[in-house]
């Protein structure tokens, strides 16, 4: 079975930095058409630029995807440029610390909206388009693949990450529920849950904190921090026909970190 995503059109959210940006760039290098979507227009343009060719392979889209109108505009922009959408990567996510004793600072509503509801609303909107496309395709042809970016925090008990853990766990359950709901329509829904990844933000954090770097490595059996491309490879597998009989799964990419005592090393 082929891992190829060449010629397919993918929407990648949270694509202005970190893992989302790495996935978008990786998909582009693999021959896919890519819509890089993010709330931060300035950073998105700075990182991605623009494809000014006669037949562009990628576009950028900026807007607040917590708003239903923005989601509709994202789908319209995608169809205007590429006529179809085959892959959705829900990578728009946020990490905030929680005070579990303070309702004003527990961040639960904020992160449920950002990390769960945005992905759910996008999944609902994009899957409807995938269903419509499937009406003119072969009866047994895959209709689409949706991949949610989650975290190993979903299965770890860290009160200071209460909201992030709860929203990640909810996203995993949404993945399973939507996988069953969309299976009759030949749309697969999976997730990739990862631990610490050497994104630009983590690099900044570690720059003056060698102790933290060693703490992460100490609690990771493979004794290193993942590169963004290692998450992107897992996402490509789930987006491609190589995983044609895989749905409702949460694949863990964390070097074994979730298998051992978490101690106090935060998950990112």
TrEMBL record:
Region forming the signal peptide: none
Domain of life: Bacteria
Pfam short name (any one): adh_short_C2
CDD domains with a match to the protein in the record: SDR_c
EC number in record: 1.1.1.47
InterPro entries noted in UniProt: NAD(P)-bd_dom_sf, SDR_fam
Gene Ontology MF terms: glucose 1-dehydrogenase [NAD(P)+] activity
Keywords: Oxidoreductase
Enzyme class: oxidoreductase
Coiled-coil ranges per UniProt: none
Family per record: Belongs to the short-chain dehydrogenases/reductases (SDR) family.
Protein name: Glucose 1-dehydrogenase 2
Biological source species: Nereida ignava
Gene label: ycdF
């Amino acid at each position: 079975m082929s891992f190829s995503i060449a010629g397919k059109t993918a929407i990648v959210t949270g694509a202005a930095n970190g893992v989302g940006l790495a996935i978008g760039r990786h998909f582009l290098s693999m021959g896919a058409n890519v819509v890089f979507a993010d709330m931060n227009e300035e950073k998105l343009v700075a990182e991605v630029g623009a494809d000014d060719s006669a037949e562009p392979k990628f576009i950028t889209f900026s807007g607040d995807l917590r708003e239903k109108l923005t989601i509709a505009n994202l789908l319209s922009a995608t169809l205007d440029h590429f006529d179809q959408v085959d892959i959705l990567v829900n990578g728009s996510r946020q990490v905030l610390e929680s005070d579990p004793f303070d309702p004003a600072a527990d961040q639960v509503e904020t992160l449920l909206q950002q990390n769960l509801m945005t992905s759910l609303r996008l999944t609902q909107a994009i899957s409807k388009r995938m269903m419509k496309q499937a009406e003119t395709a072969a009866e047994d042809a895959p209709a689409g693949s949706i991949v949610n970016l989650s975290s190993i925090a979903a299965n770890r008990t860290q009160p200071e990450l209460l909201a992030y853990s709860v929203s990640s766990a909810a996203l995993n359950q949404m993945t399973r529920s939507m996988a069953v709901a969309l299976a009759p329509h030949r749309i697969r829904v999976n997730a990739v849950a990862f631990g610490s990844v050497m994104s630009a933000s983590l690099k900044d954090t570690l720059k003056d904190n060698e102790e933290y770097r060693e703490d992460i490595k100490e609690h990771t059996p493979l004794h290193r921090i993942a590169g963004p491309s290692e998450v992107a490879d897992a996402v490509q597998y789930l987006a491609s026909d190589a995983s044609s009989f895989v749905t409702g799964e949460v694949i863990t990419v964390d070097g074994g970190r979730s298998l051992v005592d978490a101690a106090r090393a935060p998950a990112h």
